[in-house]
Fold these 3 entries.
Entry 1:
Amino acid sequence: MTFVCLTLFPEMIMGGLCHSVIKRAAERGAIDIRCVNIRDFAGNRHNTVDDYPYGGGAGMLIRAQPVYDAYQHARTMLATNARVVYMTPQGRLFNQAEARALATEPELVLLCGHYEGIDERVIEEIVTDEISIGDYVLSGGELAAMVVIDAVARLVPGVINEASRQDESFSGGLLEYPQYTRPAQCLGRCVPSVLLSGHHGNVEDWREAQKRERTRLRRPDLQEGRKP
Ligand code: SAM
């Protein structure tokens, strides 16, 4: 799967995602993460991409033309008419179901805003989806794009072990069970004895019960709606 980010801070995205699972997946070719720097399309001597908002008000906006030109450049890197996701606090809330849906796409363009946002006209022109990673306001869309890329990429076949995804939180509408590693006793606490019993059936039953109890206590909304 190919991700192309339109951003003013490509080094932030590439630096943030060049680690661990995502880095290895990119090295294996399971995913490809690229950035197009909107500033490269500023179209003026000082490379400025922002301007004052019509009607007044605080802050600056990214101009439409550099974003549109950056997008046209991104299109030359893509084989399909990829969805264009604008990262914005005004978008629909990102969750595991959304990550699963996006992971079926072969390519995705992620548009990262900055300052007070982006001139609405280019959003109307190129954006197919608007996604928020939570009800708070970030300084820029880069962290949000990184969250989306990480969550989506690990659902792309070949990125992580299929088995390790199955029990994960949200995979079946429940949170995951608690887990322990060696030693069996640590910080004055013991591993639950059922996990040391070697009885697979009992371990499975215990884990299933833990999933339900955790979800009931921590996220009752998940069980009620069987949301992702
Ligand atoms: N003025 C905008 C508003 O009130 O809706 C907020 C602009 S914010 C300071 C700058 C950029 O950060 C946005 O254009 C967007 O790309 C990104 N951003 C901020 N919060 C976000 C969130 N919760 N989810 C996704 N992107 C976000």
Note: The CA atoms of residues 35 and 162 lie 28 Å apart.
Entry 2:
Amino acid sequence: MYDLIVIGAGPGGYVCAIRAAQLGLKTAVVEGRDTLGGTCLNVGCIPSKALLHASHMLHETHENFEKMGLMGAAPTVDWGKMLAYKADTVGTNTKGIEFLFKKNKIDWIKGWGSIEAPGKVKVGDTVHETKNIVIATGSAPASLPGVTVDNDAGVIVDSTGALTLPKTPKSMIVIGAGVIGLELGSVYARLGAEVTVIEYLDAITPGMDGEVQKQFQKILTKQGLKFILGAAVKGAEVKDGAATITYASKNGGEDQTLQADVVLVATGRRPYIEGLGLDTAGVSLTDRGFVAVNDHWATNVPGIYAIGDAVPGPMLAHKAEDEGMAVAETIAGKHGHVNYDVIPGVIYTTPEVANVGLTEEAAKATGRKIKVGKFPFLGNARAKAMFQGEGFVKMIVDAETDRILGCHIIGPNAGEMIHEICVAMEFGAAAQDVALTCHAHPTTSEAVREAALACGDGAIHV
Ligand code: NAI
């Protein structure tokens, strides 16, 4: 009899299991993939970051090396070797989790699990008994009517297929200007493809601060990506190894077509709960098909919990990890907690885009008086030395208390720098607290301090 069986070994599930084992619970994880780590490690965050890194390096050699006096022929792409580097990166990390499981005496039950009844998880022909179950089964790409994904054929693909294309495409259509579309679209643009992004809304990256959206689109356009906004994709056909997309303005009008070697469907993800037996177990779902949970990640069935992409909230690995730790602590009789107001989001393009807390639009909508402090990377020596002076840091504070409500960064190292503000927000800091903190020179983090200074008496280097 286990104390806890976690279903799914993605960032939510494996982190939950490790914390549970550390707290003395006899723990097992059910995972049907050949390797641990879930979507994030196997076919998501990590392999895409390997390709982003490699393609960024290539882009640097083409765009900036000569400017720095680095002469000579720019490298060409050996796609097979690049995919092998990506696979190695994934492999070392998935093995790392196996090691952590052994170290923490967590059993890996190999296979796909389903919940027979509270306290009973069936894998293959065996039913495993447990006091508690955590559903951490993650999400899968959402389908788009009229567009059939076939990752093996490699013409119309989702985010998984886009990581193993047989060759680098000359042209690519990306459907959806969200995080996946822009990260993977950037990879193939840098590898030489002509990339066109078709987005239903009138702006890219839904939900992001409006000023960041505009600047981000401008920078990506300069990098060669084309955008068709306000357009709904209605269908796709494959002929002779290439695809034709049909789309129309979302306000109506004539159908238009566009052709490309590869089409990437990146129109969102849905919770992955098929075959889990939630019906039989009596677990309730939300009206949007997520597992319904309370503030302690408990479902309506005692002893069954759920976390990560399977429950409502941002579909982010780190949000799942936080919930994993917190639910393990709750099950162990402690007080697990996640601060949903301070969950950073990062897009790993060049420049990176990072945010935490409220956008200017959302802060205004709360009805409170706000102040906005902005600082451009053009005033930051370190960013300019890296040819990345195009972005900015934008801090949003409560005008009366100076408390930081949100921060948005588009620029070099944005994904690392945002954490200074996450910590500040966890401590309920005012912009003045950040402004009065000495920041090393020359660093890109100085731009964060300057934005904080701009919320008070003014930034220095503008
Ligand atoms: P998304 O929800 O971020 O973006 C999907 C986009 O597709 C939206 O802008 C939507 O308006 C558009 N769209 C939907 N139907 C369309 C249609 N018929 N025609 C044209 N456009 C259409 O979803 P995405 O990029 O697929 O990512 C899924 C999830 O994975 C997100 O929650 C994201 O946060 C997460 N993720 C996070 C990453 C990160 O943190 N760096 C990396 C990759 C994924």
Note: The CA atoms of residues 200 and 230 lie 5 Å apart.
Entry 3:
Amino acid sequence: MTLQVQKSWLDSLQEAVWLVDAKSLCIVQSNEAAARLLGLSCDEMRGMPVLRLAVTPEDQAFWGGTTEEIARGIDSYTHVLRGDGAWVAVARRVAPLQALDGRGYLVLSMLDRTVQENTERELEALLAELRATLDSAAEGILVCDLQGRIRAFNRRMAQIWDIPERLLVERDDQAVYAHMAAQVTDKKAYKRRLAELAKQPEAQACDILHLRHGVVVERLVVPQLQRGELSGWVYSYRDITQQQADRQRIQELAYTDALTGLPNYRQFAQRVDVAIQEASEKAPCFAIVFLDLDRFKIVNDSLGHSFGDRVLQLVAERIASCLRQTDMLCRLGGDEFLLYLHEADAAVAEGVVRRILESMLRPCELDGMGFSVMCSMGIALYPQDGATLDELIKQADTAMYRVKDRGRGNYSFYQPQMNAHLLSRMKLEHAMRQALAAQRFAVHYQPQVSLATGGITGAEALLRWTDPELGTVSPGLFIPLAEESGFIIVLGAWVMEQAVREAAKWMHAGHPLVISVNVSTLEFRQPDFVERVTRLLAVHQLPPALLEIELTESIMLQDALEMEERLRELAGLGVSLAIDDFGTGYSNLAYLKKLPIHKLKIDQSFIRGLPDDEGDLAIVRAIVGMGQALHIEVVAEGVETTAQRAALQRLHCGHFQGFLCTPALPATEFWQKLARPGAAMQDALADPLC
Ligand code: C2E
Ligand code: MG
Ligand code: MG
């Protein structure tokens, strides 16, 4: 075979071919396909060292090898240099050829891979894009074929299922599936569902899976089709833990009170509805209790709402701890609670409310501050007091107001005649505001009597309201309402003015007497309070020593420094300060030492049990002792019997106040008593003074 023959034979080939001299490694012949591929004519290529065009490192290494190594040939993808300097991708094979002339040749054949390489590159780019898209997806994705072999998954899927890196690297599909099954909380149900899905391979499915550590995942299975044929499935996993939690929270909020976590009215009403329905079959009864905290407004006003909120949480826990599993406590709003007492008749209900009262007596502590919160409760029984929840609540509310009216801190059962006095709070508030303008308020005076001499040593100014429609309205009812609505500021200022004017009149008429005026927390907190008192004393020319201000212990819960300063300013003026209802509120007594307190008024609840109740005796004795040690006067409130008075004398209490002497009297009547010759010295100790 001559070289000429070879050329025509070579030209007939589709592949580009070089015939290379085995010794010189120069091209001795090439075909037209090679000329087209390399952009050089066959003549130009002839004699050219093969390494001029085959210059990749691999080619250089190959052609630089020994004759034997070259003779072994090579078959791989490479690039060759075109005549214009551009690279062209080829599948290149080198094989030895023993020619007839006895010389050694090498046949280098090349197949143009440009199109293929471009396609491959595009495919690679597409794949990379796809992977990046998968990895950036918020959902976890797993693709598997009909045999369940994992064909693709993204990083999010590994995250959601907490698949360890090791499993991902090993690509052990069965281990991955086993790991996934181990993650779900209900493995049986998970496997059962997968088996079900396998039975309907072409159906889409959506399930909620609960994984360990509280993760909730939504799984969507979509069949994958290739040319209309099922080829596998795409599983997508969405972490819906937060979404589920939000939904649950919304549900909770719809049925619970956000502050205390207690059921709200909606849930409560459902519970009672069920009880009413069941009752018609089995005829057991139940009780509804309306519970309202006493003077809670003061806590809120003096210590702020966030402190008030914590008090409400604490109180809610206390009340709840007194209930049975079958009962329900709900917060109606503010400081009002409703109780459902399951299968409770009057005796059971009474037992529960007594337990609540007892537990409320224990002092509370928040931020190192001790105080006590009491409550008033009204009880309505089903079915005798009402057929619907609305009716029962109304009756329990009426009963609760009766408790408030009678001095708070207690409970009462609904009695039908209560409705006669029933007045909505709104109506009462409206009437109260009108009463001041219509001069329906009056200030009455109750004497304070020395237990040693029987002489009148002072008088407490007590507000009275007589309404043409409502009759006499008790301060126990309207004062809390005035405090809640803020009207107490106007009302209190009016009382103070009346009292100061009256005291000045008595003084100028020759009977100087200390007048005690009750001041609510809200009034005391007014920035101009001291200024107002000073002005009033000056206008009526009353010596400050003849004015005493009665504050409850709750004032000690105030913003301590500001209140302390105000108390000192008043004391500096010469006005005395009395602590009213002593023993029922604040349990930290350090303030007695620190503040300019002149008088303690023992709450009437401790006087009631005298002389027999050991507990009351001990408390009164302790307060009297404390007063003596701290040089603070002590007044016993609510003394009604001579036995109580005698007990107080034995305990060396300084003064008393109570019906035993007289209830509060209108100013003119009080004046008549005061002005009666020798009244101050009249013997209240042998017989009632007044
Ligand atoms: P308080 O300041 O502790 O007044 C004593 C209460 O006990 C008065 O009730 C008085 O009438 C009553 N009382 C006096 N002696 C006896 C007795 O022997 N037995 C019984 N059971 N009760 C007796 P009242 O007048 O109904 O006032 C109730 C509360 O209303 C007062 O308690 C006081 O906290 C408040 N209050 C009355 N007037 C005013 C006022 O002008 N301003 C303010 N902020 N509060 C007032
Ligand atoms: Mg008082
Ligand atoms: Mg009192």
Note: The longest strand covers residues 87-98.
